[in-house]
Fold this protein.
Amino acid sequence: MGVGALCTGLACGCWAGVMAVYTSFRTRAISVCLVTDFEYRLEKPDWQSSSRLLFEEINQVFQGTGVRWRLISGGDAYPAEAKGNMVERAGLLDQASCPADVILGLTGRPDKDTNSVALPFSHTLLVRDTPASTPAMTLTAVAASLAELFGVPISTQGLVFSDAQGGILDAGAIRIIRTMRGYDFARGIGALSGSTERRSVKALAEGLVGRDAHPEAEAHRIIARAFAGARRYEDAIRHLSEAVQVDAQNAGLRFEYAMALESDARSDDAIAELKTAAKLDPTDAKPHAAMGVINLNRRRVDLAVEEFRAAARLDPHEASYQVALGQALSEQPGGIRDAAAAFEEAMRLKPAEPGAFAGLRREDTTEQTLLVAVREMEALVNQKPASAEAHMKLGLAHANAGDAEAARDEIQRALQLEPRNGPAHIVLARLDYLSGQYREAASELDAARAAGVQPGADLAEAIQRKLGGLEKP
């Protein structure tokens, strides 16, 4: 029986098998529109001829993946006056009028934090190429970024994982790209849904076997980053939740999960994940800094100060933590002097740290204003020495100016004159809290409640957390 007769008898199965074999071996040509910015063209005047040679070499790198890149010359990556860092400018590439599966931007504009912006399954990518880069370095950077479009992981040095012989793509990377080569990059992240989404997770997990201790978790993490980059946080959370179930003891994974939750305005859930991350890796300052930011944004200043202090203790050389601590202290009653000290430390660590100098100048101005307020309240007390309210106001003025001892004296005098002064008990509780007398602070809060005044949840929780730490064996 001939092949034709056989396929007639087994029509569906035969042709399905033939098509499956064909599909598994066919090469897909993916069009890539190359756009450049003014700085790149200025640095590399021969960019048109060198880009053709570059893509000939890139296609050699991608041999065996089932992908061949078809270069299309485009125009400007974005207007010459476009501002922002590489991430922000990468967002402008979609405006390029160049129909292609992928838009690749090459930039000569320096960016201290980023060398490439290439999110998995996106339509655009932006790569920095400097005059100091050798042809081999440029090849590696661009090929790595193109590979990342398929979800292939990129190392912290910006290179895709390479094989032992020094090649750019190893067997796992080639397998991922071959499986995902049919992806509709023209639609970007919009094409990542349904069966395509499931196939992506499976392909990544299989390609990461031997490269990651938990390949399925890492696969979900890569997909989550793609969704987060497109601000589809619900989808990112869904995949990070799956990843955490597989690799529950991964502190870094928990941190990413928390950041996605916070981006989706789920702050309580984010805090819970950050606490778990901090317990899993007690040496990592980032979860504490993130909790500080979340608490400060929610106006829970005391808790924010505690977390920023923890971050600064764990990483005392990071100037940004000192600036954040200074900002939080500047909003905490009585924190003005400590805030100035934090800003000074930030400037010592990194003189050009954003916010440090401005924060220090602001605290100097504020301190002068608060000292004026102290003098005014002292005059009021001299006029009304038997007034609990006058002593209370002077105590608050001293506290805001950072003189805790003078503040305590005035608040205690106010309580002598009016023992059931609930607000005075709360101020005294804060002074006790700031001086580390947590049991005394809790007692003052109880006295405030007994006087019919409810303390703020921020201070009450901060004191309770400290008491919990004291009670641990």
Remarks:
- Confidence is low (pLDDT under 50) at residues 1-8, 14-23, 156-166.
- Residues 466 and 472 are 10 Å apart (CA to CA).
- The first strand starts at residue 28 and ends at 36.
